[in-house]
Design a protein that fits this description.
about 375 residues, alpha/beta, four-stranded antiparallel beta sheet, 16 helices, about 15% strand
């Protein structure tokens, strides 16, 4: 059984059980470069419009050599784009966000729509061109090379809520959602349209799945009420998923949402999502037994391995025990691809990455 069939079965898109639980992981630049050098493989990067997504869609050759079952592709910066760089080390990306490199992730320091108050303010914003063919050169290369053997995921993370947040600022957006500011619905609509067009370009090129990514939760609860989600956001995701599945009825729709979001899972299923990621561990409502028993008939799951503490700081015994539990519970009867809950960062040693992959293989076999 090759990786493509393995993931299709794990995600319930093809009848029958996979031979083992498929494995997937993303690597930060330091880890990717380390393994590229160790394996003698070129470290290839695809610079996404939003910098952190770069590490989702880069280094596929390295990850496959290490044992990943999936290839992840996405849109890049347009050909010829050169970010404006400033003396303080910050730069402007294609969205016009002023960025700086934080300790782990990039951070937005100035938001292009920070002063937005009216629909006219949103209408005046100039979006990047989602149809520029140069954005998809790397995706086309990877799809052509790996389509027959590996499951191909098209990544449009930082999709609607998170993209709006990065355009206006999180505090302002949440306050303005609560206050009913007139620009908010139009901003969500514009984000929906832009990322739907990106997704359709990836669907046209042959991806098996589209990965939508926005964070609706904190470590303890939702960022807003379920009613606010239903009134302001749900229809945007429903239209987006409908448009993508209309372009390819066999497409698998994946939602990434960090945080404690169990209260929205019925809504997320109604929208049309087939796979829930990353099943963030250690938050209320996300224990493997609870999530599998209550939602295992609605979703396949992808993720669930803690990287806030376990991957960087846990003992080998703790990591092994967690992987064993997740494979036994979430993987029971299929419906699971194991992965860390986010990009593996530089606080995780290369040896721990290799240990993680080995334990996934050890405990992921179906008898």
């Amino acid at each position: 059984m090759n990786s493509r069939e393995r993931v299709l079965r794990a995600f319930k898109a093809k009848e029958g059980m996979p031979d083992r639980i498929p494995v997937q992981f993303d690597l930060c630049r330091q880890l990717q470069d380390h393994f590229a050098a160790k394996l003698g493989i070129e470290s290839k990067y695809t610079n996404n419009l939003f910098e952190d997504v770069t590490y989702r869609i880069s280094g596929n050759e390295v990850r496959l050599a290490l044992g990943s079952d999936a290839v992840i592709v996405g849109a890049s910066e347009r050909e010829g784009f050169a970010p404006d760089k400033f003396d303080d080390g910050t730069w402007l990306n294609e969205y016009g966000m002023r960025m700086r490199q934080g300790d782990i992730y990039v951070e937005v320091t100035e938001y292009p729509l920070a002063q937005a108050h009216t629909a006219a303010d949103v209408e005046a914003y100039e979006w990047p061109d989602p149809h520029d063919p140069s954005r998809y050169a790397d995706a086309e290369r990877l799809i052509e090379k790996y389509k027959s053997d590996y499951f191909i995921i098209g990544d449009i993370e930082v999709t609607i809520l998170s993209l709006a947040q990065q355009l206006v600022g999180m505090e302002k957006l949440l306050m303005d959602m609560a206050l009913g500011e007139e620009y908010v619905p139009l901003l969500f609509e514009k984000c929906e349209r832009f990322q739907t067009e990106v997704g359709l370009e990836l669907v046209k090129r042959g991806v098996d799945a589209i990965w939508v990514g926005d964070d609706f939760g904190s470590q303890q609860s939702l960022l807003f009420s379920p009613d606010m989600f239903r009134n302001l956001l749900k229809n945007h995701y429903a239209r987006q998923v409908s448009a993508l599945k209309e372009a390819n009825p066999d497409l698998i729709a994946i939602l990434h949402s960090d945080g404690a979001v169990k209260a929205l899972l019925d809504d997320i299923k109604e929208i049309g999502f087939d796979v829930f990621n990353p099943v963030q561990p250690g938050v209320p409502g996300h224990s493997p037994h609870e999530i599998k028993s209550e939602y295992g008939d609605k979703f396949a799951f992808w993720g669930a391995i803690d990287q806030q503490y376990l991957m960087p700081k846990g003992t080998d015994e703790e990591v092994e025990a967690d992987i064993k539990e997740k494979c036994e519970v979430l993987g029971s009867g299929g419906g699971y691809m194991i992965a860390p809950a986010h990009i593996i960062q530089s606080d995780v040693s290369p040896e721990r990455v290799e240990f993680f992959i080995g334990m996934c293989r050890k405990y992921g076999e179906y008898k």
